[in-house]
What does this fold into?
Amino acid sequence: MPAVFGDVSHPLQKQIRLRDRMPAAVMRLSLQPIVENYIVHGMDPARTDNRLSVRVMADGGDIRAVIEDNGKGIEATRLAELKALLKSAEESEGFGLRSVHARLNLVYGEPYGLDIESEPGAGTTVTIRLPASVGEARENA
It folds into this structure.
């Protein structure tokens, strides 16, 4: 099914998979900036096989959401800059990803947040890690 953005129609294959039923929910607005980044920066309108996959699974005492695409990918230098921005408190580009990482880190602590892996021409994988039992903090986030 083609996804429509503005006046241009881009074919996009989407796959969402949840393994088992999990008691925790992914924090509100944590997936949206990642999906938006793919649409804006990674999706190639000339391709007919654009793909975005979202998988959410239990991983020990954590929940892991893995968002993968087959888009343009990110050059190694730029990827290193983005990873540094995730840990930075200063206002700059990459605000959506940094904001998600900072919120997860603030609410759940240091081991939680985003990780980005990418290879030019092969796509990008963003992993969100959060605790499986998040109690009231999850409801108020």
Summary: The first strand starts at residue 2 and ends at 5. Confidence is low (pLDDT under 50) at residues 1-8, 135-141. Residues 95-108 form the longest helix (14 residues). The CA atoms of residues 85 and 91 lie 9 Å apart.
